[in-house]
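Inputs:
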Amino acid sequence: MSDDSGVDKAAVKLVEEDEAAGKTEKLYEDIKHTLGIDFVPNMYRALAGNPDYLEMTWRRVQAVMGKDRKLGRKTKDIVALTVSIMSGCEYCIGVYNDAVKHAGLDDEALLELYEVIDLYTGLNRLNIGMQTRADEKPWHGCGGGSRP
Amino acid sequence: MSDDSGVDKAAVKLVEEDEAAGKTEKLYEDIKHTLGIDFVPNMYRALAGNPDYLEMTWRRVQAVMGKDRKLGRKTKDIVALTVSIMSGCEYCIGVYNDAVKHAGLDDEALLELYEVIDLYTGLNRLNIGMQTRADEKPWHGCGGGSRP
Amino acid sequence: MSDDSGVDKAAVKLVEEDEAAGKTEKLYEDIKHTLGIDFVPNMYRALAGNPDYLEMTWRRVQAVMGKDRKLGRKTKDIVALTVSIMSGCEYCIGVYNDAVKHAGLDDEALLELYEVIDLYTGLNRLNIGMQTRADEKPWHGCGGGSRP
Amino acid sequence: MSDDSGVDKAAVKLVEEDEAAGKTEKLYEDIKHTLGIDFVPNMYRALAGNPDYLEMTWRRVQAVMGKDRKLGRKTKDIVALTVSIMSGCEYCIGVYNDAVKHAGLDDEALLELYEVIDLYTGLNRLNIGMQTRADEKPWHGCGGGSRP
Amino acid sequence: MSDDSGVDKAAVKLVEEDEAAGKTEKLYEDIKHTLGIDFVPNMYRALAGNPDYLEMTWRRVQAVMGKDRKLGRKTKDIVALTVSIMSGCEYCIGVYNDAVKHAGLDDEALLELYEVIDLYTGLNRLNIGMQTRADEKPWHGCGGGSRP
Amino acid sequence: MSDDSGVDKAAVKLVEEDEAAGKTEKLYEDIKHTLGIDFVPNMYRALAGNPDYLEMTWRRVQAVMGKDRKLGRKTKDIVALTVSIMSGCEYCIGVYNDAVKHAGLDDEALLELYEVIDLYTGLNRLNIGMQTRADEKPWHGCGGGSRP
């Protein structure tokens, strides 16, 4: 990522849309249709080097993220961004910063999310350093928590 | 943490409730009252070695987590748990697994959350490994994302 | 890494090949000869600010990676890439994505490696989140494992 | 979590073998048969709270790890252990330390693996700290790398 | 970070100095004055989307870092750099590599710091992998440690 | 690590002091003498499975940590603890929490160190999430930094 080079520097060859055939071609169509975009993201084009893995990944993403279950999709997008920030994956942070804005978070809401991440990464590390022991009784979060 | 020892093995001395005086005593009262519990969690008792830091931390936790703003408290508890899992802080994971249950997540909802974390930590690392380049156009998350 | 600047933005001054003298010069020759390349990589040029540390590092790398022992060099290169991906070190990921290709991994093999990394970073975090307890009896890996 | 508590402290309820029915029961049989063990590991019993996710996970593990493809299963077990160590997942480290021993690694081989992990986590962080720039030409690993 | 774009690609809108009013304007003045620089760093301009959070963060940074207490400011800057390197935050690594140079660390001292980080990230991961048990008696660091 | 088992659960067999011979026996003597303790820590006993690696590690630890160079030993112990906390290595955190106390840090100083770690892990993650761009001009740390 540290330079000006393009797609050809990726670790594996991307399968371009006009090269896609068979299963890959069908998956590309499904990806574009489902995501409502007119291109196949680099992530999926890289995975197409193994069409079975592309398919397994795409089905799994849909199963986990594609519909509201007990958690709403917006909540899951917020978690996806949080995880990506914790992993330090720039590609994914970029995609999901956009995704949660698209889901309705404005700058104020985004900053609120970053505040929570700032707060807990700090407190987590503090407790790891202090080797804090589990409390004998349960409680419900540092700030009092929410009610159902 | 790998043994049978108790509180006395923590890195810093915990300030017990009956030792607390002045600012610390008042903060302890506020913590118990606000959190609705009858004890001061170990985390706060460890921080009490520096009452100013205890106060700053407690005020900050309340400012970030203590009320709904653009994000609801339940969403923020879910993010706090996600961050704690990503940091690998056992103390905090224990507290927040309890906290989100208290906020209404049953086992099915908890599993759904873990699925999202499983999915994205994997995809994050995949993209870090493949050195995936940013796409030229924005999109809205691997699974299609949510709408406002 | 966030800009267009060159070598002069590195945190410490790199010792150029024509500046190298004494122990550093000899190490530079050994590095180029052993690695079969006609330049000294930036990593080693940065370490040359402390020739003793350069030497200790180079000797150690050779001791660990320079020959087959119980593990073959190809396996160790694959582990080195895996570690680099887990650490999120772009410089090292770039070097080792190239190194394992040079060792014979084609795109299909590379993707298979990324799949394993994707799978286990996910499962690891899932088990950290679920606070899964150790099983009472040993087993041999989620997929059944290999036999000697 | 550093104490004497049992299964009931896990974040989600484990589905015991005698409670399993329908899809879960079949998957439990398949897991035990395929893994050649007489119990269902805690990880899979926790996932059984969502039988569809258990199935998706089990199928995926088999697809990635269950047979030799370009990489042998032993190599993939070594990578699985490496990833688990980098993630700091105690449960998974325990399982995979056993798994690679079962696959034929003796203490000498295990130590050689830990040496590679020690070496590269160190060098990764060193290069992250020094903000080392990508070299203009490719090379093949710090120690010279392997040949196909 | 993955491209050539400027400030407008940041996740949230930066509040420019000529846009700042009220509390934000005063904080900007205080930041520039205290830090002895003629611009407001991007980090603070991003936080200004929530002036209360900007204020809380700035007050906290000053409380922790702004004066010598038991630890000197130079030591704390070294710790801040170490933490930033461990977190892999390029922005912060850049700022703190500069900060510790400004505090008097030359290249030799910086390399010495990187050596300690290299050594311990490696040993940490080695012990995590080996699942090393706590010793029955205390000792004082791998190299013998320092005396008061 | 989460159970009651002893040394025999470690991943590799520890070489007990009365089993040590040749190079290992000499290194054990040197370790105890240099560290001023009457036992060989588990970490070194585990590494003794490969006496050459034990030696290389012990020499390296001494080279990096064993004497004041540009950084004092106390500062380096503080960095070693910081790194261990960031890596989440419980064994090393335990050893180095003791080590820095032995080096003169009391609870107040330890808490000050944890505060710095709390602050920067939070700010690091905040900047990673906000994808903050490098500033055009250098500055010297969020709190103003120290002077030489």
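Chain E is about 60% helix and 0% strand. Flag for discussion at group meeting.
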